[in-house]
Design brief:
This protein is an alpha/beta fold. It contains six helices and seven strands, in the order E-E-H-H-H-E-E-E-H-E-H-E-H. The strands form two sheets. Strands 3-2-6-7 form a four-stranded parallel β-sheet. A three-stranded antiparallel β-sheet has the order 1-4-5, with helices on one face. 36% of the residues are buried.
Length: 168
């Protein structure tokens, strides 16, 4: 089986919030863009909350202007397809959060895009590497998480992101 490797982080030095997914899906890896699947709600939610729109580079620039960064818990894993359930834990390796958080010292909060990202993070990243940070899980923006309609996801993400944004 082929190992899927993640994307580099989308971040600027002043980032306060780090949004973590698990590992990019096939469409995101193919396009080299976070949340590239057209039915993933992430960019639609960012448009509703912050007016973020345009091509991928423009959306990333606007996201960073709001002091929000994107990355993934895993840097690599075997995962046939795009489902988090297909990630092979025995092949998974986590990104280097110790070094990353030493470099980006303004990050105050990690927001997980779904419970799988949260579980992988807690299993694979030592607490000492993130002890100073607030952690919270938000509903997955993946189209496979259909238990919650878009409006519910939007409200949860609004609460999860905008509270800190108001503190700027």
């Amino acid at each position: 089986m082929q190992i899927s490797e993640g994307l580099p982080p989308v971040i600027k030095a002043d980032a306060k919030i780090l949004v973590l997914g698990t590992l990019p899906g096939q469409r995101s890896l193919s396009d080299q863009e976070y949340y590239a699947h057209p039915q993933n709600a992430f960019w639609s939610i960012m448009r509703e909350l912050f007016g973020i729109d345009g091509d991928y580079a423009e959306r990333c620039a606007l996201l960073m202007r709001h002091q929000i960064a994107l990355w993934d818990v895993l840097c690599a894993s075997v995962r046939p397809g795009s489902l988090d359930a297909d990630i092979r834990p025995d092949t998974a390796s986590a990104n280097d959060f110790k070094r990353f958080l030493r470099q980006y010292t303004r990050i105050e909060r990690i927001v997980f895009n779904g419970r799988t990202a949260e579980k992988l993070f807690h299993r694979m990243v030592p607490k000492a590497d993130h002890a100073r940070l607030q952690l919270s899980a938000l509903p997955s923006t993946s189209p496979t998480y259909a238990a919650m309609p878009f409006a519910g996801k939007l409200n949860a993400w609004k609460e999860g992101l905008c509270i800190l944004q108001a503190d700027k």
